[in-house]
Every structure is written in structure tokens, then in C-alpha cells.
Amino acid sequence: MAVSIDQIKALREETGAGVMDCRSALEASEGNLDAAREILREKGIATAAKRADRTAGQGLIESYIHGGRIGVLVDLRCETDFVARTEPFKELAHDIAMQVASMQPAAVSADQLEDGDEEAVALLDQPFIRDASQTIADRINDVIASVGEKIEVARFIRYQVGE
Asked: 5-10 — which CB contacts under 8 Å span 24+ positions?
């Protein structure tokens, strides 16, 4: 099936994936945008798995203050300072800081949770506040697919007045 340039452009703008990746996903899905998005998501998960052993030594510290009563610092890491300066990475850092402010995760990942605290939820396992169909780990994997580097939340801290 022939895929139009407008379809490729729309999928690229939505996902941030490369032109050739968008084209091949649309061709594989016979022009179905939803199926093409899923193909790109699966490819992004595979890309993230390939990069898991790399060192994420660069990144940024994102701060977020909500109403003057809640403050969050997030240490988000990537492989190069070039990626740390990109808009998708900065937007991800801000999204994660807002997630921490609103959802109060107990730790970054499930293996960091203390035994006996069944109610505690790890940040990476929480539904994303802007799109409950995704977890934070899914959101990070989407950006990994877009920028092509390992990204990880190294740590975070949340402060609230009165606690």
C-alpha cells in the first residue's frame, strides 16, 4: 500500500520518530495510524532494552513548585549533554517532576520499595497523570525511542509544607 507524505508527517509530528521509521510502520500497518503508533512503541521498547547497559552520566535537575506548598527536584539522566538540552528531554523531566508532586511515589522503581509497605507505588509503575493509558516507564520509553539514548530517573525528592 502506498503511504502518503501527509500520513508520514502526521505520525512523525505525533511520535517524534524518524521519517523512515514512520514510513515503514505505516506500510507495515497498511496505513492504519493506531497500528503504526503501536509498531513504533514496540520498536522504542526494543531500543530502550538495547541501551539498558549504557552509562547515563549526563542529564539535568528539574525543579517544580506547586502552589508554593509542594516542591520537587528530579535528577533525570541520559548519555550525552546534547540530548539533555533537547525539548523532549526537558519536557519529560518536567512531566516527571509534576508526577512526583501530585502522586507522591515512594521510590523510583519497585525494587527500591521497602518490604511490608503494600500501599507504596514506585514512580515508574504509576499511571502518567496526563495520559492514564501510559505508565511513567512507557513515557520514558517513548522519549528514548525519539532521542535514541538511554534515559533514567536517578533520584527525586519531594517536599511539602507541614510534613
From this structure: 7/31, 7/33
